[in-house]
Design a protein that fits this description.
The chain is mainly α and 205 residues long. It contains 9 helices and no strands.
Length: 205
Amino acid sequence: MTNDTRPDVIDEILDVRPGDRLDRVRRARPVAREQAQVAYEAIFRPAHPGALAVAERYAVAWAVAAWTGEPGTVAHYRDRLLEVEPRAEVHAALSRVIADGAGTGPFGRFREPGLAARSTDGSRLVVGAAEVDVLGEELSALLAHAHALTLRPREASPALLEALTDVGWEATEIVALSQLVAYVSFQARLVAGLRALRSTWEVAA
């Protein structure tokens, strides 16, 4: 697979063409490139998705990408969600939830006394009743948890997990959610870095 000439999802988001400069940069680290794609496939195209449906995965990924702030990654997951969940009311409700959770974190309070002065406050997502009616309690809980992991990681606690188990999510799905949030956050930052690198080449040209 390390010699595969096909583009992967990061190439797709960035519109990387075979043989161009950014393509050569990525292929200089074939193992990292391969592992990023394997992780994407495992998270979003699993052979057995279980209770965490593909549509829910794309919905959470869209939100995490938006809260991370990389527009190309946002568009990718929004479009993938549209393919499996075309209802306009779902997309409208998700858009409102994403806007309500927007911020430039990370936020939250440090529990360590020596770091307390560095604590910062910012957005804390509470999914509104109108959005819960459209999205359901299960997806709404996933979004609130993903927001905390993305923008308020300092406040990780058993109470966060209880909010998921209270609506029926089990350990397998909670682990899958955490993996998804970590991957999308990594992916969005990688795409942003590669996009910035390409911009420097264009300015220098």
